[in-house]
Specification:
- The protein is α+β, with helices and mostly antiparallel strands.
- The protein is about 25% helix and about 30% strand.
- The strands form three sheets. Strands 3, 4, 5, 7, 8, 10, 13 and 15 form an eight-stranded antiparallel β-sheet that branches. A five-stranded antiparallel β-sheet has the order 6-9-14-11-12, with no helix packed on it. It has a two-stranded parallel sheet with strand order 1-2.
- Helix 1 (about 25-35) packs across helix 2 (about 45-55) and helix 3 crosses helix 4.
Amino acid sequence: MTIAELHKIPLQAVPKDVFSLSGEAFVDAWATAFNLSADDLSDEERQNFVKAIRNGTNRLKIIDALRGISSGGEEQPIDYEAQVLRRSPDQYAIIESFTRFAPDNNVAFLRYTFDKICGRDPTDKERLTMEFDLRRNVTTREDIVKRVVSIARRDGQISLWDTLEQPVTQHSGNKPVDPSSARTLPAGLSYDIDGNQTLIFVREVPGEGWMIGPDLLHQPVNVVDGGWSVSPGWLITGPKRSLEAGTWMVRLDLVQDPAARIALQVSANSGLDTLQELIIAGSFVGSLCVNIRNEHRFVELRLKILETPDTTPWIKLRDVSMIRSKQGLENS
């Protein structure tokens, strides 16, 4: 949004000094202007917007985000950057959501970062070391967030970091690969077929079994009659990585009972943005397109077994993969 676009919004519904109000009053004023009810805007979401303002987020983006969840916002194009802003900080860390917290209080910043990423306070040694390095300017808050993510991974948690900055030198130079970066695909998941990037989630290897990509959560593989005996619920989810922008094709090849149903969903920003979803009944082979933009972080593909009476809980996954198309990238 720009200042020139404010004429599209009912300014008579907000005070003339709305941009001078506190974060709480600013969010309340625009929620009223967009007729947002408590069901539309929960208290938790409201507090997320207030925190974003305190952390330095442009207030025009807050207006965009509120308009996007209003009943009148359906006719507006989705602002995916607003979804990045709305997601609460967690172990999948957007660096900017941490570095802007308590800009004048490094101790508060450290405690907040450890709490959200590691689920605990820093130890005395961790706090003293990092606070001392920050005070001497030998490290930055960005580096601290990356270090905390590494600590969470060392503690056995699945944790990744990303940034709102565009990747400029992502694959250049001899800099070692950072496995804690969401833009680094885990070994074995990324393949190069005819020059196209390919992510293999599940693929049957005749006579051998199944290739299952790393960093995927999945039901235990219980092989029955050449397929998997499954239970209702999530079958596979992952990998919550930030993929390169462009058009991706999801390839599916599966066999199941004619009456059985399985749901597919591709999401981003920790589930806030749904990029593609459908329900498949019976066996299926084919492809569907997903447009991934720069604002889409932590992309995840999910397959969910739906409970269907009088069907055998059995499925044979022959191929579940995503291929980045070289066509149409100029529009991404």
